[in-house]
Design brief:
Layout lengths: L1 E7 L2 E8 L6 E5 L10 H7 L4 E5 L19 H14 L5 E6 L2 H11 L4 E7 L10 H11 L3 H11 L2 H9 L10 H11 L4 H10 L8 H11 L3 E6 L7 H5 L8 E6 L6 H18 L2
Parallel strand pairs: 3-4, 3-5, 5-6, 6-7, 7-8
Antiparallel strand pairs: 1-2, 2-4
Length: 284
């Protein structure tokens, strides 16, 4: 595994890279409040057969973290940075892996540049109104009731060590397989100056994704990218119906649901790597 950084405009974008460049490329877009660290085990499993790349978004992981006054922390703008990242690395085509925040960032990239996307691998990332779990419903209830105090307390809890740990262990089949360094490293990143403010800014921007759902669904219907669904069915943010909903618009789709939670790769990286290998080899 190589740990690299590349200049994108005035930003330093950190990324992990493994495998040989002449092999099929898989671009992995991480979730929240994580970073490319969430893909470390999966990348090791895939690196013998694929060229795998996982960047950290601006404000996340080891990438630059300009202040909210210096950089627009929106899903749209972060996706534009990922566009430029793709160009800087001269990626001619790739399979796109998306989890959580990686979904709205990745779908924006795919809609703008469908010719680059050979297929989708989707882990707990919604593009339909179906499939929002109890934590997402709780957030929505605060917003609907204009309960700003309740919403702010909830958001503040999400970025405590205990709140981050909950996102990793809730819904897991075997908690002993969850590496504590995952949630401790996420917390360490969030504890740096100004990063919690960045987190809250991006979190508050999530509502801009819902009006995009029809556009993303139209992309799926018209472009019909081969798609592999690998989903932790106990996720309290994105529940099983969110994964099943993709079958409404896609013809070439495989769906696999795991007895796991939001970060189910902590438990099932080997199994997911096997499914990815089979999925890509069938379509070569």
């Amino acid at each position: 595994m190589k740990n690299k950084s590349i200049k994108v405009d005035e930003l330093s974008i950190f990324y992990r890279e493994a495998g040989e460049e002449h092999k099929e490329t898989i671009l992995l877009l991480h979730g929240n409040p994580s970073s490319s660290h969430m893909y470390r085990d999966l990348m090791k499993e895939l690196s013998n057969n694929y060229h795998v790349i996982a960047p950290d978004y601006p404000g996340f992981g080891f990438s630059s973290r300009p202040s909210i006054e210096e950089f627009e922390y929106s899903f749209e703008n972060i996706s534009l940075v990922m566009d430029k990242f793709i160009d800087e690395l001269e990626l001619g085509g790739f399979y796109l892996y998306m989890q959580d925040y990686g979904g709205p960032i990745g779908f924006r990239v795919a809609v703008r540049r469908p010719e680059l996307v050979k297929g989708l691998i989707i882990q707990n990332a919604n593009a339909y109104n179906e499939g929002f779990g109890e934590w997402a419903v709780e957030i929505g209830t605060y917003i609907q009731n204009n309960d700003l105090d309740g919403l702010n307390k909830y958001k503040e809890h999400l970025i405590t060590l205990e709140g981050i740990k909950e996102q990793y262990i809730t819904g897991a089949k075997d908690i002993s397989l969850i590496d504590p360094s995952s949630y401790f490293s996420d917390y360490a990143f969030l504890s740096r100056p100004d990063v919690k403010e960045i987190f809250l800014t991006v979190f508050d921007n999530y509502g801009t994704n819902f009006p995009k759902y029809p556009e993303w669904q139209e992309y799926l219907r018209t472009k019909q990218p081969p798609t592999l669904i690998v989903w932790g069915e106990n996720d309290k943010f994105f529940s099983k119906p969110g994964g099943e909903a993709y079958a409404k618009d896609l013809k070439d789709i495989e769906m696999h649901f795991f007895d796991g939670g939001h970060f189910m790769l902590e438990e099932y990286s080997m199994e997911v790597a096997t499914l990815i290998h089979s999925f890509i080899q069938k379509r070569k």
